[in-house]
Amino acid sequence: MIIKDDLKYSNEHEWVKVTGNKAYIGITDYAQNALGDIVFVELPEVGTEISAGDAFGVVESVKAASDIYSPVSGTITKVNEELIDSPEIINEDPYGAWIIEIELTDPSELDELMDDKEYEDFCLKEG
Amino acid sequence: MRDNPLIFELSVPGRVGHSLSECDVPSKCIEDLIPDEYLRKDLPKLPEVSEVDAVRHFIGLSRLNHGVDNGFYPLGSCTMKYNPKINEDVAALEGFSSVHPYQPEETVQGCLELLYKTGEFLSEITGMAKMSLQPAAGAHGELTGLMIIKAYHAYKGETGRKKIIVPDSAHGTNPASAAFAGFEVIQIKSNEKGGVDLEDLKSVMGNDVAGLMLTNPNTLGLFDEHIKEIADIVHNAGGLLYYDGANANAILGIARPGDMGFDIVHLNLHKTFSTPHGGGGPGAGPIGVVEKLVPFLPYPIVELKDGKYYLNYDLPLSIGRVKSFYGNFSVIVKTYAYILSMGSEGLRKVSENAVLNANYVMNKLKEYYELPFDQKCMHEFVLSAQKQKEAGVSAIDIAKRLLDYGIHPPTVYFPLIVKEALMIEPTETESKETLDEFIDIMISIAKEAESNPDTIKSAPHNTPVTRLDEVKAARNLILRYDFRL
Amino acid sequence: MDDIKHKGDGFKSRYIPNTEEQREKMLKSLGLDSIDQLFDYIPERVKLGRRLNLPEPMSEYELLKHMRELSSKNISTADYCCFLGAGAYDHYIPAVIKHMLLRGEFYTAYTPYQPEISQGTLQAIFEYQTMICELTGMDVSNASMYDGASASAEAMLLACSSKHKRKVVISQTLNPEYRNVIKTYAKFNNIDVVEVGYKDGITELSNLESVTNKEVAAVIVQYPNFFGIIENLADISNITHKSGCYFIVVADPISLGILKSPGEYGADIVVGEGQPLGNPLSFGGPYLGFFATTKELMRRIPGRIVGQTTDKLGRRGFVLTLQAREQHIRREKATSNICSNQALNALAATIYLTLLGKNGLRKVAELCVKKSHYAYEKLIETGRFEPVFKAPFVKEFVLRINEKNIMNDLTNFTECTERLGNKESSENVENYSLVQKLNKKLLKNKIIGGYDLGRNFPELSNCWLLAVTEKRTKEEIDSLVNNAYLGGAEE
């Protein structure tokens, strides 16, 4: 299982990569592995405002469909349109295949998230 | 090997598979009767084949299928029992099959009598006051029952009851139906015996709870001994108890949901009452309710007055209609015929034999497969392929290997609370010889998982097609034939 | 247990193969002495402790005789000539269909969860989906739903969830039972249903325009509508899409053999009752609802759907796909709670459309048009009926009974009314309506008359909705025309 040390993690298995006041959000290697081959990603509309904990999309495999929750609050500024035709890039490169870009309204929320070590422990506990 | 042709690929322009009478009324041409702007210019691309082409095509397709008539079908929770042939014959009698639903009541007294009596029989079997035969399937019955729960609480002014409690072992339809009826779903845990955790239930009960949905025996095939306590907890808090009848094959003539304390019941006629599954439908999911909920049933209800049967639409508190007409009538005809064929003694024997068959198989297999809940089961039981998983063989692989032996696999990966679940329901219509053969095959697969796991993992080997690429199907959706090919 | 000796005691069912000896052996292997011990952990207080109060078991022949007697209490369209439609139609069903449907491999199979041994069902559904797309002019079809009414309600729910809006507009020319089912589903999902009236038999466009706005998720109309009339889909489509709503069309599949497809008019969802395609009337069910939509909505389509793929050897095969949005995986977040389709009814429809082919279906539709127009004109010629609407129709039409002229002999009017009228009618009509009286009179001529529109439309009392399918001959239509009167000479 790959966990990167430059990212923040949520207990719903999303990762957050912060650049300035913006953040990219995707799902972790653990999550993509649990879901299996991803066949579809339902993306939100750009401009949507979301609060931390809101579901903003769905990732579907043949055996499961899982809501994607935003670990942080803000306005969605971009969605990764490559996922529409090639959802499998999440399986191939979960940390490269970001799902949305969000403009943060409350960067202090990032402090609530796990770092790589904490997330690794968290995954181990989840089995 | 060649692909099995689609009917469109057999089409030859100019061929006909029908015979229609010539027009015998004096008539103008169509364009004079219907304005040209409404007429379609491109005809739908339906196939052009002869009758024999059509027959061979569909017979050919049937041969790619496995049904109960082909062999053993121990698919848990689906009650794949034998479908009696006489039932098909009587449902096809013209006096049933060629009756229009809007004919005047005096011309359909036989149909209404059949619906009325079937309702009475099912009320007696479940211990309910009255049935509605309108819902078309189990999930449809659930939805209807949940609407009744909502309407009942609303009638009592308790509109704050917005939650439905569902155990984590429940069929997926339970939470889906509850959400579909506008409820919030609260999941509770099962205890170590697979039953409802009473403490967990107490902790979530309150005046915001509309009801609890329960399957008893539950999806592990286990009867919840605390059903009375559960009913009391729910009723004392003002909630209603909903019985998912998917597993009713275990309790015919033995225990009734009404006596257990349930307020609403749905039955799957295509499971317990022997009507065929038809490759996915039609079924029927009648619901029964206790006296206080009768006014909320969908309209119309068949009633009897002065020796005449009639459709009662005068139900001001009714939730409304959930379907056209009066339900899946011909499925109900088959149910009625089945109940008459079996009688009370026969129905009790159904459950006795279903339960005996399940326990017999479970007992013989528990040495070879993990049995998470080792106690007497009802009509079905759940094994886990965790042992086999260690050799890299998972439940789905075992399922696929069974196909090579002409046996339909058990339900796999359900219930969700058991890892690598294999849910086995033999039903009462299987003989000891069939069960013994199944047991032998399951044991040989368990041994094969150790000696030659690759054979299992690459199974099936003897089927019309091998494992299909479901990922490709879902990523690259091809949902219809492309005529440009 | 009671001590009365029942005929059922020791009853052996031919559906339960194990013998007493086998049962004993099996019990022994479990370390038990009696069947009752299998149930000993069920608390006594919930056990039934008595026999179910049901009739004694019947032999197969007794059952057959009983069922024949019961069925003979009904009047069947096999013996009577049926002019009743209103959502269920007496079209001819080719003999092949019955034979194919009785193949045990089809009808005794479960939902095709194991595709390796279910290619028959799966491929037939794939063919069905293709045919429904062709008929409706849509991109994708599901594997079928319970019936036309519930498919309409599911279409409404899909539109509302997809648009995130809680309001739909439906036309009063939509089948009243469909409207009722839609309202039931809407009520429990907090959806507002606004009804639009009709004028000259079709949806009133100005009214439609005034209620269709940005708050509305969808507009639902029927085609041809409940009165048999062809709605102006082009205008309705424009009004609907101008407000950004989905356009939902409830269509009759036989009529689509000649009418422009709803897809051509820009429909977003097309649903309908598939019964006319090779399924018997069966007193209202089981039928099948078809459901087709656009590429845009395909991943949200409720119910089962079959997709094409390949097996490990590269051969074409079919599987249930898009299952992740279904209830067994998605549970309370599923797009619908439906977990079955009407596979066998859909198979009947597939075989029907195969046998008819593109020219046959058109021919059936044309025969309906010609025969219904012949009946329409002949009935009006008698002077006993008046036209109600003037718009074009396909296989059904509305006539108003001329109260005066319908009486063959006015002196007998009172007597006739008294003889025919009583309180047993449905829908709580205190007395029989004129349409009911006329239908009762026609039964004596072995004719099943039309639908009484006064049941659902107070303004259409004395109005008769007649359906004329390709099965009706000139002789039968002439008999209807000659016998459609009340009083006097009939005795």
Strand order of the largest sheet of chain A: 1-2-3-9-8-5
Summed over residues and divided by their number, the pLDDT of chain A gives a mean of 92
Q: How many runs of DSSP E, i.e. beta strands of chain A? A: 9
Beta-strand residue fraction of chain A: 25-35%
Structural class estimated from helices and strands of chain C: alpha/beta
- Written as H for each helix and E for each strand, in order along the chain, the element string of chain A is EEEHEEEEEHHEH
User: What is the terminal-to-terminal distance of chain C?
Assistant: 59 Å
| Low-confidence runs of chain C | 1-8, 413-430
Multimerization status: heterotrimer
Q: So, the CATH homologous superfamily of chain A?
A: RNA polymerase II/Efflux pump adaptor protein, barrel-sandwich hybrid domain
| Number of continuous helical runs of chain A | 4
Bin the helical content of chain A: 10-25%
Terminus-to-terminus distance of chain A:
12 Å
- The portion of residues forming beta strands of chain C comes to 5-15%
Placed side by side, the strands forming the largest sheet of chain C appear as 2-10-9-8-7-3-4
Largest sheet of chain C: 7 strands, mixed
Quickly give the CATH architecture of the largest domain in chain C. 3-Layer(aba) Sandwich
Radius of gyration of chain A, whole Å: 13 Å
Number of DSSP E strands of chain C: 17
Enumerate the spans of chain A where pLDDT stays under 50 for 5 or more consecutive residues: none
CATH superfamily of the largest domain in chain C: Type I PLP-dependent aspartate aminotransferase-like (Major domain)
